[in-house]
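Class prep. Sample record?

___
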Amino acid sequence: MGTLAVTVKPNSKAPGIRVEGEAVEIRVAAPARDGLANEAVRRELAGALGVPLRDVALARGAASKHKAFEVAGLERAAALAALRARAASQNG
């Protein structure tokens, strides 16, 4: 199981993923209220990583923009590589 540190940007007009080194930023349109942004990030991660939604869990940071998500069945390095590929496909 890999743990990813993610900075979340809710209420974004330009949703997407950005990865610089090992820093992951996910922008979502959902607001930071009632867990909506957390769920949107969870869904974005599952889609980008090609894993079922049930394999992505918020581990820390429910009320913070700095969060940790655990991804079952995927090591951290593989998850970062997949997120870099998704970010690259969004940008061109």
User: Anything to note?
Assistant: The helical segments are 36-49, 76-90. The chain has a mean pLDDT of 94. Residues 76-90 form the longest helix (15 residues). Residues 19 and 84 are 6 Å apart (CA to CA).
